[in-house]
Write a structure and sequence with these properties.
Shape: elongated
Strand content: under 5%
Distance between the termini: 35 Å
Radius of gyration: 30 Å
Number of helices: 3
Strand order of the largest sheet: 1-2
Order of helices and strands: HHHEE
Helix content: 40-55%
Structural class: mainly alpha
Length: 87
Amino acid sequence: MEDFLFHNISEEEKERIRKEAKKLIDSFSDKISRVKVSEEEPNVRRKEFERIEGKGEECDNDFKKIIFENAPNKSGDFILAEKKKWE
């Protein structure tokens, strides 16, 4: 199994590998050059770079109550959530 993983190659094999690699790169380059790319306009247009915050609206108290009832961990008016849990 070891000589399958690593072995010395001849100059002919090196040249064959170079030709195959060039063929793959040329083929990929040809195909990617045919891809049509359209630059889309942004969906949001505004004069200012940053959005100006409005006054907002008051939250429905029942909504807040339901959300906090469903939250497993809370502290006062805050929902405690785990940050970046990777499985």
